[in-house]
Amino acid sequence: MHRTDLIAIGELAARTGVAVSAIRFYEVKGLIEALRTGGGQRRFLRADIRRVSFILIAQQMGLSLEEIGDELARLPAGRTPNGTDWTRISTGLRTRIDQQLSALKRTRELLDQCIGCGCLSLKKCGLYNREDKAAQRGAGPRYVIGDRAGEIAEIG
Fold it and tell me: From edge to edge, which strands make up the β-sheet containing 6-8?
């Protein structure tokens, strides 16, 4: 490893737009790892720019720090992740993103009508969820999480 492969914490912060305190937090959580100079200063691999950027994207997607750590554990330590590495990780995340997009689209479509929550407090819900038929499938906003009004049997 060459000295030019390492960057200071301030440079990592500047390159990723993340506060130095956040980088320290990610280090404490085990998401990135600092090397120490003889004087105790933190140095990071240039590859950590991509790792921190991945953390930011994953957080925006709603992944927990534990889930992010699990994904980052799949990346090689000590070298810059290559296309194959990122393809392996992105395949699983792509499924999650597709599921989130579907849920958002369903929510948008149902936002102004019944979501199958069982509230029975709106006059309009009586039309879409008469006698709380959606509750037969379980608790929560049944129509938003994927159940369709026509799929739920009439209460006899």
Answer: 6-8, 42-45, 35-36
Query: CA 151 to CA 48: how far, in whole Å?
Result: 48
Neighbour-count burial for 102-139, b at 16+ CB within 10 Å, e otherwise? eeeebeeebeeebbbbbeeeeeebeebbeebbbbebee
For 128-152, what is each residue's pLDDT tens digit?
777 788 888 888 888 888 887 767 6
Residue 97 has which token pair? Answer: 């993103």
Phi, psi of 135 (to 5 degrees): -65, -15
Look up the pTM and report it: 0.62
User: Do you know the residue count of the chain?
Assistant: 156
- For residues 116 and 134, give the distance between their C-alpha atoms in angstroms, rounded to a whole number: 6
Residue with tokens 């990592």: 12
| Spatial contact of 116 and 142, defined as CB atoms under 8 Å apart | yes
Confirm if 35 and 43 have CB atoms less than 8 A apart.
yes
Q: How far apart are CA 132 and CA 139, in angstroms?
A: 11
For residues 54 and 80, the answer to whether their CB atoms sit within 8 Å is no
